[in-house]
Amino acid sequence: MSTVYDCNRPDSRDTGLSTAANAVRAGGLVVLPTDTVYGIGADAFDSTAVGSLLSAKGRGRDMPVPVLVGSWTTVDGLVLSVPRQARALIEAFWPGGLSLVLPQAPSLAWDLGDTRGTVNLRMPLHPVALDLLRDVGPMAVSSANTTGNPPATTAEQAREQLGDSVSVYLDGGPTTDAVASTIVDLTQARPRVLREGAIGHAELTEVLGAEPDT
């Protein structure tokens, strides 16, 4: 049986965050608000929990799960190296609607799906998400919807689709900017935009000093 916590009320917010953190550590799934859309999340290092996340969404391993982090410094332990372009983009747009695809650190014992040695990282600009991430560490988080349906912009929409497959729903109210993050691939010599979203092409070009590939 899942539980919904109203994170707009201080008492319920604190209880919800504590319960959600315990659920994540126990291998459960939680729904959390972000600055783009609601996400369904699990401990990034718990392969069984990540498998449950994919199953709840009706999604295959061919669509690996992105990872959300609670601070810039967390990235250094998750990737092979942080190139200059990545640091420039992180400083300009994190926390915010930019996801970066980088070669993952080979020592990491996780299974996010068929990533081919890469990881999709983002730091969201939402206080509830950041508080949870800073408590439990990196989380595998995908949009809170079942495959083929629109991403949830409220906790209720997420619950209608995901039901009791999720242990805890953190309700932060409707997401104010329901635009997916921009995804930039930094695994090659030239940055490449895999998906245009919250961060525009012109903004990326200004930071990078050159236009990224598309």
UniProtKB/TrEMBL annotation:
One Pfam family matching this protein: Sua5_yciO_yrdC
Entry GO terms, CC: cytoplasm
Catalytic reaction(s) noted: L-threonine + hydrogencarbonate + ATP = L-threonylcarbamoyladenylate + diphosphate + H2O
Keyword NAD: no
SUPFAM superfamilies with a match to the protein in the record: YrdC/RibB
Enzyme class, spelled out: transferase
Domain of life of the organism encoding this protein: Bacteria
Enzyme Commission no: 2.7.7.87
Entry GO MF terms: ATP binding; double-stranded RNA binding; L-threonylcarbamoyladenylate synthase; tRNA binding
Main localization, broad class: cytoplasm
Domain YrdC-like residue range list: 14-199
Entry keyword annotation includes Nucleotidyltransferase: yes
Entry's localization field: Cytoplasm
Regions annotated as coiled coil: none
Keywords: ATP-binding, Cytoplasm, Nucleotide-binding, Nucleotidyltransferase, Transferase, tRNA processing
GO biological process: regulation of translational fidelity; tRNA processing
Annotated family: Belongs to the SUA5 family.
Name of this protein: L-threonylcarbamoyladenylate synthase
Source organism per UniProt: Halosaccharopolyspora lacisalsi
